[in-house]
Structure formats: structure tokens, C-alpha cells
């Protein structure tokens, strides 16, 4: 058996690459034909019912507008009720038939049961469930001394998707509906300062890939993965447990060059309505997946060179036991060695520097 495995280790990878190279044109042609067919059989969302979690900003907000343009009925869920009210008015103006809003926390199963139940009672059905709430971070793992934020990261990025799906699944089966998941390219593309976020998103994708086989054709699942896009998260604005808007000082003056959130949201909704199982933005990121599978050393060397050329490390030092500086001329230590949860301050505070960032 050991000899057979050794032989296959030598033969299978290059043989697979050769087969992929020869079959790529045919596979691309089949994919193009499938895309054209699905384009003519797009799901009509008029009067359909869509639940969107994390709808108070960023990707969730733009997805709400895209469904509104398709005349859907919306249930918008997030913790910032004041933001939801404004977004619901915008959605109505853009064409949404009826819009409900509910302040809820997706990591609490009871909250999830509440907003799904309210949706079914009011609209009578659920057709699409869109999970967009995420929690990111910008710290190097070895610098962390306060680990209290770790479970919170996993709760939002994993359970914050699983709980709404669990509760809504029976109703989605009845309507032959669809679950749309906002994942990330970090599920398989290694990036620094995002270790826990990447792990949670990888677990999330594996969960939905498995669920896809369990629900078979009764419920569709669309997994959306994106690279760096311009959103509240990349601009340094975040949400924490109390629901206050946050912004790190050092990121308030950074010019964001990520791709537009609006374009990604449009791709997600159009892909979901076509019945696509994956939506990728931008799609050329897929080439890195091939390198990771067949030539991981090349990918590792490339990233090491890029990171070494990027200069000194910049990170959020809150919770790492190291002093945080205001960035003023005096350079006085502003905060030092405290818990990240005690240092989450409103955006208008000159001392705001959260270690965790809630994107809703």
C-alpha cells in the first residue's frame, strides 16, 4: 500500500494538471452555455420574500437595494434599528413591495427564531435567506494576550450564519427557496492578520457545501466569495456588541481602493436568481486556488515576497499588551494592555481602536 501511495503521489498531480489543461476549453464552453441558459430562466423575485441579515450597512445594505429593484418583499435584520429604518425607506423608493425591519442578533438562536417567525406570519413564506453579517480583525495572532474576543469572532462568522439557516430551512423547503452566504476568498487564500476570520469562513463554506448534499434540490445554496472590496469594514467602521459605530483612528485617513460593494451585491443577487452555486468577485482569484492545490510552495514564496516588500507591520495593538499611540506629534501612549472589549469606543471618540470589527 505504501508503494502504491508513493506511486500515485508522483503520477496523479501532474496527470491531473494535464487533464485539466486539455479539458479546460470544454469545461469553459459548458459553463458559458449553462450561464446563458440560466440567464433566460432567472427567478422572478416580484412578490417573493427575502430575509437579509446584517442589512444595516455594507454588502447587506446593497443586497437589500438589489432585491428592492426586483420588487421583492424584504425583512431586514441587524442590530442598528435606526439604520434599518433609513435603509427600508430607500428600499421602498427603489421598488420593494413591502419592507419589515427587526433589530436582532444573529448569534442568538431565539432572535433568529423571532425574525423568521415574524416574516412567515406577515408574508406567509420565505424564498431567499441572505446571510451577510461578518466579524473581521486586523491583529497578528502571536501578539494577542486577551483571548476573550476569540469566541465572539467564531460566533458571528459561523453560528451567525448557521442559526438563521437552521430556523429558516423548513420554510425554504416549502418554497423551494435558496440560502445565500457571504463568504470570503480568505477561506483558502492565506492573508496575514486574518487567521481566525479565515478559519471561521473556511468552516462556514465547508458547512454549506455539506448542507448542499443534505437538502438536495429542495433548497438551493449560493456561496459568494470576494476579495478586498470597499465597505465599512475596509474603511475602519465597525459594529460591536452594544451596537455603537466604531472607527479606528489610523484607518480614518486611509484611502480605500477595494472593489465597489455595489457591484459585488449585484453579482450576488443576479447569481442567486440564476441559481448559481458560486458567485466569485473577482473571478481571477481562482488561479491562486490551483497554485495552492498543485504548487503550494510557489504560492507561499509569492506571498512572502509581497509581504516583505510591504514594509513594517501595521496592526491594531489593542488587547496585545502593547501601547497604542494616538499618532500625534507627542507620541504619548494612549491605551495600554487592556481588554479589547473595554476599549470599544464610539466613532467620534479620538481614542477609538477596536480589536474586533462587526460588519452589519
From TrEMBL:
Gene Ontology terms: cellular component: cytosol; membrane
GO molecular function: oxidoreductase activity
Record keywords, A-Z: NADP, Oxidoreductase, Signal-anchor, Transmembrane
Record localization: Membrane
Bilayer topology: Single-pass type II membrane protein
Name of one Pfam family that matches: adh_short
Main location: membrane
Family according to the record: Belongs to the short-chain dehydrogenases/reductases (SDR) family.
PANTHER family the record matches: DEHYDROGENASE_REDUCTASE SDR FAMILY PROTEIN 7-LIKE, RETINOL DEHYDROGENASE-RELATED
Name of the molecule in the record: 11-beta-hydroxysteroid dehydrogenase-like 5
Amino acid at each position: 500500500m505504501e508503494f502504491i501511495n508513493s506511486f500515485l503521489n508522483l503520477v496523479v498531480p501532474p496527470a491531473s494538471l494535464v487533464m485539466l489543461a486539455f479539458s479546460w476549453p470544454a469545461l469553459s464552453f459548458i459553463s458559458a452555455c449553462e450561464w446563458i441558459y440560466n440567464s433566460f430562466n432567472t427567478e422572478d423575485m416580484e412578490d417573493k420574500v427575502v430575509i437579509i441579515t446584517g442589512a444595516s450597512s455594507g454588502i447587506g445594505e446593497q443586497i437589500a437595494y438589489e432585491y428592492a429593484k426586483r420588487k421583492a418583499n424584504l425583512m431586514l435584520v441587524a442590530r442598528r434599528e435606526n439604520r434599518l429604518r433609513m435603509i427600508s425607506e430607500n428600499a421602498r423608493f427603489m421598488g420593494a413591495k413591502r419592507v419589515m425591519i427587526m433589530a436582532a442578533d444573529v448569534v442568538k438562536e431565539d432572535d433568529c427564531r423571532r425574525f423568521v417567525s415574524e416574516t412567515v406570519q406577515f408574508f406567509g413564506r420565505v424564498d431567499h435567506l441572505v446571510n451577510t453579517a461578518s466579524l473581521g480583525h486586523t491583529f497578528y495572532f502571536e501578539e494577542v494576550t486577551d483571548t476573550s474576543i476569540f469566541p465572539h469572532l467564531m460566533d458571528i462568522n459561523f453560528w451567525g450564519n448557521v442559526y438563521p439557516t437552521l430556523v429558516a430551512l423548513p420554510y425554504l423547503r416549502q418554497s423551494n427557496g435558496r440560502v445565500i452566504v457571504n463568504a470570503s476568498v480568505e477561506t483558502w487564500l492565506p492573508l496575514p492578520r486574518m487567521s481566525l476570520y479565515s478559519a471561521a469562513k473556511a468552516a462556514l463554506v465547508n458547512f454549506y457545501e455539506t448542507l448542499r448534499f443534505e437538502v438536495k434540490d429542495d433548497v438551493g445554496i449560493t456561496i459568494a466569495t470576494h476579495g478586498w472590496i470597499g465597505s465599512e469594514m475596509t474603511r475602519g467602521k465597525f459594529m460591536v456588541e452594544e451596537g455603537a459605530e466604531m472607527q479606528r483612528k489610523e484607518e480614518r485617513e486611509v484611502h480605500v481602493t477595494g472593489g465597489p460593494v455595489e457591484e459585488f451585491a449585484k453579482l450576488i443577487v443576479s447569481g442567486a436568481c440564476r441559481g448559481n452555486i458560486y458567485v466569485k468577485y473577482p473571478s481571477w482569484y481562482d488561479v491562486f486556488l490551483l497554485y495552492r492545490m498543485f504548487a503550494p510552495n510557489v504560492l507561499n514564496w509569492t506571498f512572502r515576497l509581497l509581504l516583505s516588500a510591504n514594509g513594517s507591520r501595521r496592526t491594531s495593538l489593542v488587547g496585545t499588551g502593547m501601547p497604542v499611540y494616538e499618532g500625534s506629534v507627542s507620541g504619548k501612549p494612549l491605551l495600554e494592555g487592556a481588554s479589547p472589549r473595554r476599549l470599544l469606543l464610539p466613532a467620534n471618540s479620538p481614542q477609538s481602536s477596536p480589536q474586533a470589527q462587526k460588519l452589519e
